[in-house]
Amino acid sequence: MKLKDLAAELGLSQTTVSRALNGFPEVNEATRQRVNEAARRLGYRANVSAQRLATGRAGAIGVALPLQRSQHFGPHTAEFLSGIGERLAQYEIDIVVTPLDVDDEIPLYRRLAASKRVDAVVLSAPTPDDKRIAALTELGMPFFVHGRCEVPIPHAWLDIDNEGAFRRATSHLIDLGHRRIAMINGPVDQTFAIHRDRGFRAAFAAHGLTPDPALIAGGGFTDENGFRLAQAFLERTPRPTAFLAGSMMTALGVFRAIRLAGFELGKDVSMIAHDDVFPYLNADNMVPSMSTTRSSIRAAGARIAELLLQMQEGKPPASIHELWPVELVLRESTGPAPK
Q: CB neighbours (10 Å) of residue 334?
């Protein structure tokens, strides 16, 4: 069955059917569902080769994977790529993932632009003055930023409210009576970590308090980093009575350090962790259950894939700015500050 046959069956134009199948917002939800149901029922599949010849598109999205940076994020990267990949696979669009030995992506983007192997690239873990944005703009390569930066060049981005999330989490701990709150953040040069630090400090300032700079650290989202930093903090006098952990992986290390020190989580020491919603690490199933600031990185990847498809259909990148709220979920790992 060809596209024109499917359109005739539905009594719709070929343009409407094509847009409905590709998930574009110009088509209302009822029509989209009707078209997709008919395509499944009638066994319609787009001719991908013909589409690529007609559009001049490669049918692929590029993602650079600097090995040094991927060590910082580990399972977060896997979840994010899964979200993008699952969404793009519905339209037979591939992901070209390129590992790099050094954290220098710009030569890769020059090669991708020259070879036309991908239609766009996704940038992750941006810094405030990220040089990749200017380079990609100069190359004419479409791109999407997962996160935010301060470069004054119009571009598409999607981010979560890291500042608001950590401000709310810190305020909750302060309201419980905690004053010595340790924060184990992400890599300190990344924008999201800067925003989290800003929210942490803003919460203290709103209560007329000042955080102890000796209880603030950053680094990779690993169990080992969380354990090492938490152990050092807990050896201080006076010790912290609460922790903010930058990820669930970090929180595992903090929890290990708390237990090794002979303290009980949720009673002697409280903790709130950021949860990117891993299917294999459920905050509800931990003992005690973990309070979290919660946002799915897989859902972010899926949404970025959708927005990339819209960009390919002509939506201006500068009009795509999404800031997602972050949910604060309170469980057993937080309690009043010990007397």
A: 21
